[in-house]
TrEMBL record:
Classification via InterPro entries: Ig-like_dom (IPR007110), Ig-like_dom_sf (IPR036179), Ig-like_fold (IPR013783), Ig-like_Receptors_ImmuneReg (IPR050412), Ig_sub (IPR003599)
Annotated source species: Himantopus himantopus (Black-winged stilt)
GO biological process: immune response-regulating signaling pathway
SMART domains: IG
Domain Ig-like, residue spans: 3-86
PANTHER family named among the record's database cross-references: MHC CLASS I NK CELL RECEPTOR, OSTEOCLAST-ASSOCIATED IMMUNOGLOBULIN-LIKE RECEPTOR
Record's protein name: IGSF1 protein
Any single Pfam family the record assigns to this protein: Ig_2
Annotated keywords: Disulfide bond, Immunoglobulin domain, Signal
Amino acid sequence: GAPTISIFLKPPGVIPPGGSTTICCSCQCDNGNFVLYKNGHPVRTLELRVSRAEFSISNATQKDAGAYSCHYQNGSTVLARSETLEIQVQEFHLPEPALSVLPGHEVDAGADVVFRCTIAHPKAGCFLYLEGQVEDFPFLPSEQDYILSRVHKGNEGRYSCQCFTKNALLKWSAVSQTLDLVVR
């Protein structure tokens, strides 16, 4: 079968104008190139280095927003494609949220873990991010908890959250400080 490519943002979340992020593409591939596509068009090519390629975006503007994907190619032959990653560039108008985790940063496998993203805004909703994942956790109204039941090693990693309001205009917060979850 064809290799699977994963694509994710480091750090995850909506980027502020002037901000920076890195698009990471990785796969269990041999030699070849990663070609970064934006809105269906090739943008940049990088040689594969230890089954990973990183494309940096710095001093982001609205021109950097769009739908990105990675293609793994050998010559002009496309061997695999990643999912599509939507990048948004937005001004931050809300205060930075605070992320907390209960019962703590280190938990035993099988335990339930509660993530709480708190923001000083009554009508904000929040996303929880796990670095290295394309999929965010489901959106939640602020002051509600994300509960991970029966955690396992696959839940380990660096978490953060980001909040927004949907009034007449969509307004975003900065991304919270990160929290590392360790599963023993």
